Amino acid sequence: MSVDLHMHSNASDGQLPPEALPELCAQNGVKLMSLTDHDTMAGTKAAEAAAKRLGIAFIPGIEFSTLWGGTGIHVVGLGLDPESPGIAGFVAGTQMKRVERGRAMDENFARVGIHGALEGALHYAENSTSLSRTHFALWLLEKGHVKNYQEAFDKYLKPGRPGYARVEWPATVDAVRFIREEGGVAVLAHPGRYEFSAEWMSDQLLEDFKAAGGEAIEVTSGSQSRATDIIFAQKARDMGFLASTGSDWHSPRSARPSPGMQPALPKDLTPVWVKFGYPRDMD
C-alpha cells in the first residue's frame, strides 16, 4: 500500500523516533501516512516535519485506548490538532491510568516471583505516561523469562495471564464522540483482533461505533488476519463505513508488516483519506 494510517513511534510503544518513521515509509513507497501513537500526539510535529521533507503527505493521528463490553477497543482519531487543549485534557486521564496499570502489573509479577518488572519496563519507555505492555514484554525478553516477544504476551501479558492488569479506559462511544467534537474522523482499529465472549458482540460494537459517529474501520491491518480483512471489507460494504488501512507497525521484532506493506484495500471501497481531500487511488 502507498498509504499507511496506523503506526507507532517511541513516543508511545514503537521503536523508532517520530522523525525516523517517515524515512522508513519513504523506503517502502508510502505516499500518505499517519503517526497514531497510543494516547499521545507528542511525536506528531516531528513526524509531520520529516514527512514533509520527504514529500510524504501526512494526516495527524492518535490511537485512543477505550473500553466496550468489557473489552479493550482501540479507536484511531485522524485529522486532529496535536496542540488542542481538548486532546491534552482527554488523554491526561488515560495516561495516568497507564501509570497506575504499570504499578498493578508490577505487583502481579511479584506475586509469581518476578521482581523489578516496573523498573525494567520503564527503562524501555520514553516516559511513564506512555508505559505499555510492550515495554514489559521487552523487559521479560531481556531477562530471559520468555524466549521471544510474542511469548511474553501469550504467557504473561494477555487477559487472564499472571502479569495482566485490567484498566477502566474511557468508553468507546465517548472517545468517538470526542473525536467528532474535535473535528476528526473516528476509525475502529483492527476490528478483527478483538476477542468477544459471544459472536453477536462484534456486530454490536460496529453498530454502537457508527451510532456514536464512527465513520471508518480498518479493513486491512497488519495486526489482524487476512481472513478477517475479507470479513470486515464486507462489513464496510454492508454498513456503509469508509475503509482505512494500516500496518500497526511498532518495530522489526514483531511479525507485523513494515509500514505500507499491509495488504491493499479492495478497490470498490471508499478510502477514508478522501475525507481529507486526497484521491481514492494514491498509487
Automatic annotation (TrEMBL):
Q: Where is the Polymerase/histidinol phosphatase N-terminal domain?
A: 3-68
Q: Where is this region: Disordered?
A: 1-20, 245-264
Q: Where are the transmembrane segments?
A: none
The protein's GO terms of the molecular function aspect are:
5'-3' DNA exonuclease activity; 5'-3' RNA exonuclease activity
This chain belongs to the protein called: PHP domain-containing protein
Organism annotation: Sutterella seckii
